[in-house]
Amino acid sequence: MRAALYYRVSTKLQEDKYSLAAQKEELAKYAKSQDWNIVGEFKDVESGGKLEKKGLNALLDLVDEGGVDVVLVVDQDRLSRLDTVAWEYLKSVLRDNNVKIAEPGNIIDLNNEDDEFISDIKNLIAKREKRAIVRRMMRGKRQRMREGKGWGAPPFEYYYDRETGTYKAKPEWKWVIPFIDNLYLNEQLGMKAISDRLNEISNTPTGKPWNEHLVHTRLVSKAFHGVMEKTFTNGETISIPGIYEPLRTEETYRKIQEEREKRGAQFSVSGRKSSEKHILKRTKITCGECGRKIQIATHGTKERPIYYAKHGRKERLDGSVCDININTVRFDKNIMTALKEILSSEEQAKKYINLDMDQDELNALKKNIKALNKKISQLQESLDRLLDLYLAGGLKKEKYLEKQKQLESQIEIYKKELDQNELKLKTVESSMWNYEYLYEYLEVITDLEKELTPMERVQIVGKIFPNATLYREKLILTADVKGIPIDIEIPIDPDPYPWHPKKRNTYTK
């Protein structure tokens, strides 16, 4: 038997001091006792919940090349604590190459239904254990903070001093916070203008440009006057003073928050001062029916603005009229409810996002990709025929340009959908992301309602959801999670005033 040894730990500490060396010794000893030929050794220092790991990828490459009969691990959970899609992919690679999974004293043949069933149960138990480990870690972190000790990655202006157990400011980045504070309080600049001024001096330490979100986090974070404060998923908030070296005073922090409140109450809505601004004002919204841009229009009074997502009436290619005009009260609360539920748990997130995809759904996705390619090809042919008709004198220029624009708009919609579906297929097949990635990406909006001014809320939502698609029955918010477009489906409630159009203008929040 040609055996590939695979061993894994989750952290660098375990690699250096604990189980990695022990796993290697035990597996090599067992393979020798079985008279197996060791054809390769592979290791990872990463979470078992991720499929994309250097060592595991190298192992699967060797499997695909037909160079392995059995993968030997101390316990199957070293190989996998994967979600359902990723686990099925891993099993299929091993099964297709007739490769077994072995633990000392036990061999699992994935071509045997009973063996595979036991293997699936082990993976489910490993996933559950992983979640329990995370819960225990969070309990430990909460207790650490209760004892006055900090943890976690600091803002990039700081580094962790092991001797003192505190975070010290990096000398080369001490200028950033006083610089931002001066521009915000004294020169009265906004976050976009401040980020532009910062970029004139330097990029961030990671080499990326400054943006409004980075400026915002520095204006609202208590870390820069020394306080570590974290709110945990159980609702508990713990604050520890003196953990960070202060780069501003607490008095300056209070002045910044007062200034934020003032600005939040004084920005313009359609040229008038108001305390409101629609949350999707900086999100590019496209009509899902005709492909035109959707505007967030303001009606009502300056004290009680009413928002409509709409565009003008226009005839479509099939002769019908696209006249979408939706009072945003029909989906505003649904957006906030969806975001809260997505962040509350993976199960709640599944109400709005397809996190798992079975084989039937995978086949449907492939079928949809094929159908989109066909539609794009047909529309392109129609565009070519339209041009031939115009050149032959059978169509006036104005009509030709109008039809051309409509066809190109439809092609653009289908191409965008095609790109997203192809990337989604690639993502599902390689299991490049999971709920943890999504939570990490959306965690910034945890305090969207209580801690941000209206303008900041609009800016943050615009960054998180740069694009959206509006239909008559649903709104699709598209987030870019680690380069992968993730669609969040928001339901649109029935029109509260279907019987009397004039009453819509009398609606108040």
UniProtKB/TrEMBL annotation:
Which parts of the sequence belong to the Recombinase domain? 155-266
PROSITE patterns referenced in this protein's UniProt entry, alphabetically: RECOMBINASE_DNA_BIND, RECOMBINASES_3
Q: Which residues form the Resolvase/invertase-type recombinase catalytic domain?
A: 2-148
Keyword set, alphabetical order: Coiled coil
The record, for Pfam families, names: Recombinase (PF07508), Resolvase (PF00239)
Asked whether the keyword Coiled coil is assigned, the reply is yes
Kindly list any coiled-coil regions of this protein: 355-431
Q: Give the matching PANTHER family.
A: DNA RECOMBINASE-RELATED (PTHR30461:SF23), DNA-INVERTASE FROM LAMBDOID PROPHAGE (PTHR30461)
Quote the protein name from its UniProt record: Recombinase family protein
Native organism: Geobacillus thermodenitrificans
